[in-house]
Amino acid sequence: MSDCIETGVVDKNLKVHGYPDFYITDGSVIQGNVGVNPSLTITAMAEYCMNLIPSVADSSVTYISKQLKLLEEEWKKKT
Known about the structure:
Radius of gyration: 18 Å
Largest sheet: none
Shape: elongated
Distance between the termini: 51 Å
Number of strands: 0
Number of domains: 1
Strand content: under 5%
Helix content: 40-55%
């Protein structure tokens, strides 16, 4: 984690330097040993990062659920 590409891979928002919309949210971005089991730290970092990403129009869970329901209905008609 760093402010520039010369000293690190991701910035403070876990966004990869030089690659728009590319984030790394796993344990590789932790700068040191956080303890025996870092899973909660990794989860918290991933949730923090996901909250920073702006939502896209029509990407809500409701929209996706409707699309899945339509696909399921089409599949049932074919079988």
